[in-house]
Amino acid sequence: MQTEWASGNGRDEPTGGFAGQGRREPKVVVGAAIIVAGRVLACARSSPPETAGRWEFPGGKVEPGETEVAALVRECAEELGIRVEVGDRVGPDVRMGHGRSVLKVYAARLVGEDQPQPLEHSELRWLRPEELDSVPWLPADVPVVAALRPVLAATDPS
Ligand SMILES: Nc1nc2c([nH]c(=O)n2[C@H]2C[C@H](O)[C@@H](COP(=O)(O)OP(=O)(O)OP(=O)(O)O)O2)c(=O)[nH]1
């Protein structure tokens, strides 16, 4: 299937708003698996203390009325100072916090010559497929990282 790339211009549906209020929808957290030449960008959280030092994909909570793609574009700009184009989903929807939230990760690529800066994280690393287990990921990310491994290997130029 052809990968579609988007940059927050409304390809997907906004979440939140007033739909489905009787049954509380899980809060959506989006993450960007930014891939460059067979490596993915992993980011070490700096806060809060319970998750500091754990590694994650850049991203965050989708705001009411915002699309998932737009949230990823916004979070990558805020956290890393970069522009990204968002591609296909990677891995499963992962329920977190006793089902109160759900993690959704998307493949992404850098726009132009933009270079990620650790504006909010304590450290950034570009990981090859064989290095994916070298950092302690947040627990919700583990099944996503497993699904990412073959995707990364397929884009590795070496
Ligand atoms: N961004 C991100 N968050 C993740 C991942 N895995 C995972 O369990 N989480 C959790 C950590 C946090 O509890 C939550 C995301 O919250 P956040 O604090 O990063 O979101 P945010 O940037 O919107 O923050 P805020 O405005 O609420 O302060 O999801 C991941 O790969 N990326």
UniProtKB/TrEMBL annotation:
Molecular function via GO: 8-oxo-7,8-dihydrodeoxyguanosine triphosphate pyrophosphatase activity; 8-oxo-7,8-dihydroguanosine triphosphate pyrophosphatase activity; 8-oxo-dGDP phosphatase activity; 8-oxo-GDP phosphatase activity; metal ion binding
Keyword terms of this UniProt record: DNA damage, DNA repair, DNA replication, Hydrolase, Magnesium, Metal-binding, Mutator protein
Name recorded for this polypeptide: 8-oxo-dGTP diphosphatase
Reactions catalysed: 8-oxo-dGTP + H2O = 8-oxo-dGMP + diphosphate + H(+)
Organism the protein comes from: Plantactinospora soyae
InterPro entries reported in the protein's UniProt record: MutT-like, Nudix_hydrolase, NUDIX_hydrolase-like_dom_sf, NUDIX_hydrolase_dom
Enzyme Commission (EC) number: 3.6.1.55
Higher taxonomy: Bacteria, Bacillati, Actinomycetota, Actinomycetes, Micromonosporales
Domain of life from the UniProt record: Bacteria
GO biological process: DNA repair; DNA replication
Span list, region Disordered: 1-23
